[in-house]
Specification:
Helices cover about 45% and strands about 15% of the residues. It has 4 helices and 2 strands; from the N terminus they run H-E-H-E-H-H.
Length: about 110
Amino acid sequence: EGVVVPRIEQFRPQLLLLGAGFDGHKKDASQGMRLEARDYYFITRALLGAAQRCGSRVVSVLEGGSDASVVCECARYHIAALMGEGLQEGGGEARAEVHAAEQSKSE
């Protein structure tokens, strides 16, 4: 946040394109970043804040990750941030109503 957000605000883009890849998660050893799923929530919120201060529009594109269960969990946090949802007290799970995921569970 200390490097990327100020650069975004300095550049003032009209469009901020987020490549939502989750390879930085701790279960993906190839990147060595060791992020937790909820870190993606805070990263997304920081980027959205920068975009809002610049008057930018935001587009998020799912890129993926190497572990499907991790991608699902990280995507929930990312989508919760995009939707302006907070984090629930207690379990720390993101409150994202991802209708497609919920429908697939019930089928």
